[in-house]
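Reopening this ticket.

The earlier resolution said the output was attached, but the attachment link was broken on my side. Pasting everything inline this time so it's all in one place.
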Amino acid sequence: MGPEQLRARVWKAIESRAGQIIEFGEDVFAHPELGFKEFRTSRKAVELLSSAGIPCEQGIAITGFKARLRGRSPGPSVCVLGELDSVLCPGHPHADPQTGAAHSCAHNVELAVMLGVALGLVDSGIMSCLDGDVVLIGVPAEEYVEIEYRCKLRREDKLGFLGGKQQFILERAFEDVDIAMMSHAIFTEEGTARSDRFKVGGTSNGFIGKLVTYRGREAHAGGMPHDGINALNAAILGLMGIHAQRETFRDEDSIRVHPIITKGGDLVNIVPADVRVETYVRGKRMEAIISASRKVDRALRAGADAVGADVRIETLPGYLPRLAAPALEAILRENAESVAGREHVGRGGHSSGSGDMGDVSHLMPVATLMYGGVTGRGHSEDVAIADKRLAYVDTSKVLASTVVDLLSDGAAAARKVIADYRPVYNRESYLRMWEELLA
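Inline output:
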């Protein structure tokens, strides 16, 4: 049976599950959970896979899971990932009222799509026609949020990294994977016309994270402010120092620094003595990120020096820039065009955002299918899934078809993708890179 017939079978199987795939995605949308806390989301996904006869390894990176579909003969392993977590967006109409978490990142779609691919491959019975395996991964904590909480987990030796895919690398969960794919939303404002149903290709920024603590001295803010040391003033001066550096960032390096104050003091009538800041330093190349990071540190320290406060800057492992895999992207593009038509498939460029798929791209070829059907500005309270068939069902078809093309005919296409790619690191050199960078 040729690839075209196999694709037709898997499309039919996905169509028969379309209602269930959409229902799952909408249920996750209504029950958002933050990174490394996605216990309900993970359980629901594992239950659905188990109902289809797909056993899962659970508890990877706290809430992550992994399953394997075996082909008719040994060969390359193609991984399809879905992300479990949400972001903080308390104004979103579907935000959790207790935590403020909301799927204004549309990760609920990505997870449902991964499950759609799994159900399509199993229900169609085509794994017996493929040479190699399909690995299904539900990965936590792509969104780099709640940094203090995750640092606490690191201190408790529950984590080594703050991102889910990085932790999967640390725990050797990618050791038996050769190629990785996933999906991600194309965000548009509601009512904006867009011909692209899908986009394929592109790169993205990486970043380093920072957790900053300014320590001053408390005093009565009205009666004896001269006896205090205002840590909030130190932080404000530090942030202004960062702004003064912006003209030194080169356009081609795509540097982004966007700090927030997470604690500004304790009471309004006490001179602030404990002030916390979180920030990323993003960029297109690690060399540019490191250079900008040094400038940021200088500015933060200068704010403390100006008022006589102390500052502690904890630089944390962020995410690496995402690298392109042209051979894999070409196969993904062909399948996107077969589902949506060539005129509706665009080309991705460089994104100044970041994701931990960038780290995986330094170890193996990866590709991300960008899908439409989502309205609103990413990470905002107006994000909604407007075209559910496009987002959930058609995206599942594209990724499942790409799996077929990679692993049919003796997995010739997958072997070529692997041979054409030059990984930057293996697991050991990757971990050593981060250790040396943050030393």
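Reporter confirms the inline version is readable. The longest strand covers residues 73-83. The CA atoms of residues 322 and 357 lie 7 Å apart.
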